[in-house]
Inverse folding.
């Protein structure tokens, strides 16, 4: 039982980490908490379901959803956030704007797909495998492996590629990066695309795990992922991964030993306790001004 719940928690945690990475990427570049990210996650899950229902195949359907959701992330920035930056608006204006966008996306999903809960097919279900005497579903293993690979790819992009170097330069000092010939707007665009794409993958994986989608699914998942990002140190990629795993494991064990009604609260209790001791998060950098 313990091993099964631990694996359940790690599996959920890796998916939360994928969502949390979107928060960290945008915050690292713009010092902005993008509260529309949870609805972007729900958007990706709904369109994955739409493309799967068109008999395109699971992988092509998710790939199309990833591209479309990445484009949505870019549109959010270009239509709402970039004009605010050009006017040098206060950070609170952008923060409120992302909250408004979140509700707009959620309501558009209700209009387009309905407000009821819809069935999402289980992904790559080939039964169970025995690991140290515990029966673990192949779906869980698949979600864990996919999340691990994607997080590794994101880490590689940010740490070892030219665009990743540009992102880190913009994160440290936008004006200096611009003077060095870096197109700051293109870097921000790529960041929003990357965040939207990772949210779409996470939405597809979680929907396949729970076998359902609904318009408001992004609220709690987004809050847990935000908690994971803050817990690890928002703006720090590996901190988001660690925070996601902690939130996932705590949720899994809370549901088992305290009851399902407490599973959401435990993650936030841990977050509050950590922030009382380390306000910048476990791996956060001192001097980061949080919005």
């Amino acid at each position: 039982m313990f091993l099964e719940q631990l694996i359940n928690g790690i599996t959920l945690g890796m998916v939360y980490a994928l969502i949390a990475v979107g928060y960290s990427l945008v915050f690292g570049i713009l010092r902005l908490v993008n509260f529309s990210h949870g609805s972007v996650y729900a958007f990706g899950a709904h369109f994955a379901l739409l493309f799967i229902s068109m008999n395109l195949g699971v992988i092509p359907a998710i790939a199309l959803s990833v591209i479309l959701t990445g484009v949505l992330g870019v549109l959010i920035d270009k239509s709402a956030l970039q004009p605010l930056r050009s006017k040098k608006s206060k950070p609170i204006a952008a923060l409120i704007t992302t909250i408004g966008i979140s509700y707009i996306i959620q309501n558009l999903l209700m209009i387009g797909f309905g407000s009821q809960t819809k069935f999402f097919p289980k992904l790559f279900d080939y039964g169970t495998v025995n690991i140290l005497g515990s029966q673990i579903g192949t779906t869980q293993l698949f979600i864990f492996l996919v999340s691990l690979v994607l997080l590794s790819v994101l880490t590689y992009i940010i740490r070892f590629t030219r665009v990743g170097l540009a992102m880190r330069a913009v994160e440290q000092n936008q004006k200096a990066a611009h003077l060095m010939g870096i197109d700051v707007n293109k870097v921000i665009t790529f960041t929003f695309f990357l965040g939207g794409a990772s949210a779409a993958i996470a939405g597809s994986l979680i929907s396949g795990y729970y076998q359902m989608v609904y318009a408001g699914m992004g609220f709690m998942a987004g809050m847990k992922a935000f908690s994971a990002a803050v817990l690890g140190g928002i703006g720090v990629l590996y901190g988001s991964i660690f925070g996601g795993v902690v939130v996932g494991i705590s949720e899994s064990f809370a549901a088992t030993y305290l009851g399902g009604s407490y599973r959401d609260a435990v993650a936030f209790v841990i977050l509050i306790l950590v922030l009382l001791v380390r306000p910048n998060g476990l791996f956060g950098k001192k001097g980061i001004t949080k919005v």
